[in-house]
Amino acid sequence: MPPPADIVKVAIEWPGAFPKLMEIDQKKPLSAIIKEVCDGWSLVNHEYYALQHADSSNFYITEKNRNEIKNGAILRLTTSPAQNAQQLHERIQSSSMDAKLEALKDLASYSRDVTFAQEFINLDGISLLTQMVESGTERYQKLQKIMKPCFGDMLSFTLTAFVELMDHGIVSWDTFSVAFIKKIASYVNKFAADISILQRSLAILESMVLNSHELYQKVAQEITIGQLIPHLQGTDQEIQTYTIAVINALFLKAPDDKRQEMANILAQKQLRAIILTNVIRAQRAINNEMAHQLYVLQVLTFNLLEDRMMTKMDPQDQAQRDIIFELRRIAFDAESEPNNSSGSIEKRKSMYTRDYKKLGFINHVNPAMDFTQTPPGMLALDNMLYFAKHHQDPYIRIVLENSSREDKHECPFGRSSIELTKMLCEILKVGELPSETCNDFHPMFFTHDRSFEEFFCICIQLLNKTWKEMRATSEDFNKVMQVVKEQIMRALTTKPSSLDQFKSKLQNLSYTEILKIRQSERMNQEDFQSRPILELKEKIQPEILELIKQQRLNRLVEGTCFRKLNSRRRQDKFWYCRLSPNHKVLHYGDLEESPQGEVPHDSLQDKLPVADIKAVVTGKDCPHMKEKGALKQNKEVLELAFSILYDSNGQLNFIAPDKHEYCIWTDGLNALLGKDMMSDLTRNDLDTLLNMEIKLRLLDLENIQIPDAPPPIPKEPSNYDFVYDCN
């Protein structure tokens, strides 16, 4: 007979004594269990003690998390969080350097536990640490030369404890003084050689900027891009990641009118070239966090184009009209004409109208009207002028080529440029906030200071080439744009390392090649629509759905590693969740790092019976998506969020690593609850498997028995006389 569900068998340690084997009744108050343990070792004042996990986490056990205790767990009897916090609060103020150092080391370790953190913060511990940073370090200025290693360790542990305590979100970032910010900013320069201090200082600056507008302004005054750049030129990728994260935070929180100014400073300091040389082209792999920060920087850089993208052209603005005149001048090299007589004015107007038609504008009389649509607004005109000035020969060739064709076969440069700019903005998501989960940066955009304009120049030449290959007419304009978009998207998925490599990829993706790819994909996804086939599909669909359901449940049994999102994304915290083989319990628990392969059930401390699950909610309906904060408003995070709701208002919140895992888990959980699997992945799998099954059943296999096992290999013949030697 299995033991009662409320009884957990554990071992409990106490320094200097043999561990005790004990059965814990989860229905009893935790204080009563602790008293029972203390009585067994004749310890008085049981309220001064607590239980904690004896693993590397050392987290305290509370009434909230006691259900995480599992059979066979090893626990430790220790001082209560309140007592421990009080003792450490006193110890870190010790006059002995050695005692102070040891106390700060312990504090840095204990601060990861939210129970201890709450108690220490209640003692005004955060204020004590900030005072130590502001003034306490000055007390030891004279000792630095003598005891530099000790001082460095002390400061490192102080900053680590501060970061861990703030990471719990208990205290607002708005409470810190200018003196504290100045001190942290000074460490970025002063302790460049001390990796741990530099890491913590950069992490604190990033969190300040992201979590408080007032602190952003103060940090922006104290830290300059010039002070951050040298840290990118080192070899430590973690320091480089923290540095780019601070730059991104300053970029993201800067007021709209300051962002372009900041971008100009970054260009002056050659940030792009430094990142390209020391990060992207360095002789080491780029980890996920660095990839994310590069992606964020890429998005923020392209978002500077949003203002021009959303600006309509003013037909009365002479400076803007001069840009169109310049496009015409470069293309046709018109000589200056007399403008005194009314006849010459009429002649000039007629000639301009003819030239604007050749340039491919929709409005031949007043082409400024073509740029009143947003997006792409003035950004399209900027791109056209850049192409005309920096790639003059291809520009002139395209315009003259098309002006010499029949009207219906002309590829209109003006209209094409406007639509292409709009398409490129959609592909690169110009104007959207960066995703918290995306690592999709493109190295080629870090190889040129005007990467978007160069991207446009390559793509407009591609568009003209594809137009000719398709022998398109004006009626085919939208079809050509669809093909060009497919060519660009397919080339981008290969992650070319330079713009030249991107151009080379596009050369291989001609219209003929796109047709071959489409034909191949069509054959693979062929869908028969005749009535008998539809009836056969309807008959075998339940069998296929059951197969998909089993695959989803098998994937849940394997489990998935999820990342806990917090304000300091680099310092990832992971947790793992998997379904038991009998499909009755979800096992989950925290991990120190991302696992390699599966995580065994016995290493996951928490469990949730499937029978207790009330509902599965997604997106905005998730409890963790209803919280305030910029992170929670992110569109991509919303699309990957789902939650399990169980009895007593309990909830288990998830952010899937990608869309595929999101579909796997939502499908699997819905299957466990007896609901339909409604994800896009299920629809795709169903179509693929149904089509494969239909094709197999339609093969001409009448009266042919398919064996279950492969046929045996025949015996070797007794002689080879039947072999004819051709020689």
Molecular structure report:
The protein is of the alpha+beta class and 727 residues long. 53% of the residues lie in helices and 9% in strands. It starts with 6 loop residues before the first strand and ends in a 30-residue tail after the last helix.
Tag the structure with descriptive keywords:
single chain, 727 residues, alpha+beta, four-stranded mixed sheet, four-stranded antiparallel sheet, globular, Engulfment and cell motility 1, PH_domain, ARM-like
Q: Helices, strands, pairings?
A:
Layout: E1 7-13, E2 20-25, H1 30-40, E3 49-53, E4 73-79, H2 81-91, H3 97-110, H4 114-122, H5 125-139, H6 148-167, H7 178-190, H8 195-211, H9 213-222, H10 225-232, H11 237-253, H12 256-268, H13 271-280, H14 288-302, H15 306-309, H16 318-332, H17 342-358, H18 378-390, H19 392-403, H20 413-427, H21 451-470, H22 477-492, H23 499-508, H24 511-524, H25 531-558, E5 560-564, E6 573-579, E7 585-591, E8 606-609, E9 613-618, H26 635-640, E10 641-646, E11 650-655, H27 659-672, H28 680-697
Parallel strand pairs: 1-4
Antiparallel strand pairs: 1-2, 3-4, 5-6, 6-7, 7-8, 9-10, 10-11
Briefly, what is this?
Residues 319-492 form the ELMO domain. With 727 residues, this protein is of the alpha+beta class.
Major beta sheet summary: 4 strands, mixed
Strand order of the largest sheet: 2-1-4-3
Total number of strands = 11
Low-confidence stretches: 143-147, 334-342, 628-633
Structural class: alpha+beta
Q: Mean pLDDT across all residues, rounded?
A: 86
Distance between the termini: 80 Å
How many DSSP H or I helices? 28
The global form is globular
Q: Compute the gyration radius: what is it?
A: 34 Å
Please report which band the strand proportion falls in: under 5%, 5-15%, 15-25%, 25-35%, 35-45% or over 45%. 5-15%
Helix content: 40-55%
